[in-house]
Structures are given as structure tokens and as C-alpha cells.
Amino acid sequence: MKPIAALQTAVTAVAFDGEPSGAELAAIEREMPLILAEVDLLDAQIMTIDRPATTLDHQRIRRARRRVMAARAALTNRAGAGAVA
User: Fold this and answer.
1) pLDDT tens digits, residue range 2-33?
2) For residue range 31-67, what is the model confidence (pLDDT) as tens digits?
3) Measuring CA to CA, which of 37, 50, 53, 58 is 20 to 30 A from 81?
4) Are residues 45 and 61 in contact, defined by beta-carbon separation less than 8 angstroms?
5) Are 75 and 31 in contact (CB under 8 A)?
6) How far apart are CA 52 and CA 14, in angstroms?
7) Longest C-alpha distance within the chain, in Å?
8) How far is CA 83 from the centre of its chain?
């Protein structure tokens, strides 16, 4: 029986070191306001899981949703402005 082995050299030129690149870190930094707004929304929703939601809870969730939408709009506008320029 003949052993099966790779006949070609490795395709990747550089080994993956597991760390994010500078471009990936910059993208995360640009999206950080949206990420934080989504975390706030998740926190507001988690608080109402094990108990009935009060009026204050509903207001907190609505405000968090508005912050998420505002952050998404700002991120989209920045991306659109960068594509036009």
C-alpha cells in the first residue's frame, strides 16, 4: 500500500499567528460605538428575563434600541461617505 501525502507545498506563505491584523483592529475600533450600544440593549433585555417588565424597563429597552439604531446609522453614514470620497 502506498501512503498518501501532499504533493504540493503549503499554500499559505505566512503562518497564522492568531492575532488580529491592524486593519481588523481598526475595523473593530470603528464599530465600537455600535458594539457598546448592542451590549447595553442586551443588558436591558437580560434584566427582564426573570421578572415582569416594568414601565422603567420598557423605557430602558426603548432607549437602548434607539441608541443601537443611531449607532448603526452613524456607522453606515461613515461607510457611505468613505465610499463616495
Assistant:
1) 767 666 665 656 666 788 899 999 999 999 99
2) 999 999 999 999 999 999 999 999 999 999 999 999 9
3) 37
4) yes
5) yes
6) 54
7) 74
8) 20
Alpha helices, DSSP H, located in the chain: 22-46, 55-84
Please compute, for residue 11, the number of CA atoms within 13 A of its CA located in the half-sphere on the CB side.
1
- In the numeric block, which cell numbers belong to residue 51? 421578572
- Other Cβ atoms closer than 10 A to 10: 7
Closest C-alpha among 79, 70, 85 to residue 26: 79
What is the pTM assigned to this prediction? 0.70
For cell 501512503, what's the residue? 3
CB 65 within 8 A of CB 41: yes
From the centroid of its chain, how far is CA 49? 23
Cβ-contact 64, 40 below 8 angstroms: yes
